[in-house]
Amino acid sequence: MADVDQPAGHCLGFTVNKERLVAKINFFLLYSVGAIILPTLPVFGRQLGLNAASVTLVLTVVPFIIFVARPVVGGIADRLQKLSLVLAVVLIVEMFGIIVLTLIPPMSNVTEPNRTISVELFTDSDIVVGAFHKSSNISCVLHVFQNSSIHCHLACPCAAHSYMYSATDNSSCDNVISIEAWLRPLNNSVGAPGTFMLRNNNSAPVKTSDIPFLNSTNLMCSALCSAQLNTCLPIDVTPAESSDVVISYQLCAFFVLLSLVRVCVSSSYSLSDAACFEVLGECPQDYGVQRMWGTVGWGIMAPLSGLVIDIVNSDSTNTGYTVGFYLAAGLLVLQVLVCWKWNLRKTKLNENILKNVGTLLRRPKNFCFLLDIFVVGACSSVHWFYIYWYLQDLGATKLLMGLALATQSFLGDLPFMFLAKWMLSKMKNINVIRLAYVGFFLKFLGYSFLRNPWWAIAIELLQGPTYGSFYVAMTSYAQSISPPGTEATFQSVVSSVFDCLGVAAGSFLGGMGFAYMGGRKTYFVASIVPVVWLICTVLCDFTINKCTASDHNRRQDVEMSNPSGQPFLQIKDIEHEPGPTAQET
Q1: Number of alpha carbons in the 13 Å side-chain half-sphere of residue 243
Q2: Where are the domains of the chain?
Q3: Is 142 within 8 Å of 193 (Cβ atoms)?
Q4: Strand boundaries in 44-138, DSSP class E
Q5: Do 334 and 56 form a contact (C-beta atoms < 8 A)?
Q6: Short-list 345, 348, 305, 313, CA closest to 329
Q7: Could you tell me which residue ranges the Major facilitator superfamily associated domain spans (predicted)?
Q8: Is pLDDT larger for residue 245 or for residue 493?
Q9: Which CATH topology does 356-554 take?
């Protein structure tokens, strides 16, 4: 349990006790796992064979499940007063969900409607032999062609003696013979599996008597044959190319397990924030120094996990992300061991958690704070989900995209989280949050005019005010206004508004913008949103403060005119009256 009465050296940040060290390790492992899991979950759905519509449906519904489940997990932690135990259980459930997710079998490939196939043909008198290509299901082809026809176009160049299939004199030199014929399998002694013999049927027989040199001359002819093989021909893609939601076992399992994993990941973030503030005690301004180790973990593990996946898959055509999930499960084991040794208990029990949190949400100032968080979450989502798409349209290399991510973590988030303590001492929490709007305006405006993608590295330096210092200010403010015993619950509510509702709205609007306006116009329009909201939130805050001051003055006037206010006035009079009168009173 955190010692509230810590030495002053702790507040200065020079002394790190055991529990603060555990908090740093916890954040490092927590966001290392997030760097592996969160970006790859949507792609893993495609690996299972789910189409884009199905994955989009899942990713749209899951944030609302998190929005409901996250405060429930926080409320359980507040009720049990065992943050470390609840956090460890959440991590174990997350690990279970990740492992089971890798056990889902992928969907079998389906055929592409109306696809045709070519057959390479060789002529030998009245028998045409073809080698069947691009099929691994020979038995199915044999079955289909028992009663199916194949249409061929045979073109033979002129030989020394020109003979025409048609008796007309104005025929061209090249003979083009169109026939409809049956395809029959050859005996095993004649050709390899997949080799067929094309015999003529009665609808268009080849009259060898009209072309006598076929039996005496080697004639090289080109032929193109096509057939409908809707039930046998596999394609390179799965139902993912379809625009409809395909209900399947894989979709249901993916939805359930993805929801479970995402709820656990999000809840572990909120519980870790609440646990960190519990450790800091009366030094909440040191939160940024602890939280920045999560950024270090994310920045290191994101490229490292990608490298491990590439190395494991280098000797095969497999490009799956299963090995990344196993790596995340291993890190979760370490994190559970760390949390198990973290003897952290909440010091205060609140019997009316829902009532107190509801009272917080009904206050206008706190409601405006949640709206601020929502807008920042929406702006963040537009950038997080579509920046690589936009850079790819500009011709950026994978190296540049990796450098942009590294810039976000190490040159953006890290220094601003470290400086957040100083910024909060010089500015109010709400002003640090508003600084994010200025950062988003400059970032989005810069991307709207971007031509050379390498300038994205400079623009990504604005990740500091848009996320680094903002996140510290958001969690610190939520901690400061939470009634004792409700910290985990209210942290979960605030985080849910940010990365559930806000992120869901931003991803939807950003996707619509990229679809109908393109990346450049989307970023330009998005740059206007934070400026407009900054003006609105300043005016809203000014109005609330003015109304609050008026209500406060009105209550004072009522107390002075109300008999219930007399004791206060009598005390004030006593302080100014002579001693004897005071004794009489």
Answers
A1: 0
A2: 1-108+246-347, 116-234, 356-554
A3: no
A4: 116-124, 127-132
A5: no
A6: 305
A7: 24-523
A8: 493
A9: Growth Hormone; Chain: A; (1.20.1250)
Closest CA to 34 of 76, 85, 94: 94
Q: Is 496 exposed, middle or buried (0-12, 13-18, 19+ CB in 10 A)?
A: buried
Which of 15-24, 155-164, 342-351, 493-502 tops mean pLDDT? 493-502
Only one residue has tokens 């003015």, namely: 546
Q: How far apart are CA 228 and CA 222, in angstroms?
A: 21
* pLDDT tens-place string over residues 278-304: 888 878 888 888 888 998 998 888 778
Supply the DSSP string of 506-561, one letter for each residue. HHHHHHHHHHHT-HHHHHHHHHHHHHHHHHHHHHHHHHHHHHHHHHHHHHHHHHHH
Note the CATH architecture for domain 1-108+246-347: Up-down Bundle (1.20)
Sign of CA dihedral 13, 16, 20, 25: positive
Rounded CA gap, 328 and 307, in Å? 14
Rounded CA-CA distance 471/372 in Å is 12
3-state secondary structure of 302: helix
3-state helix, strand, coil in the chain (%, to 5): 65, 10, 25
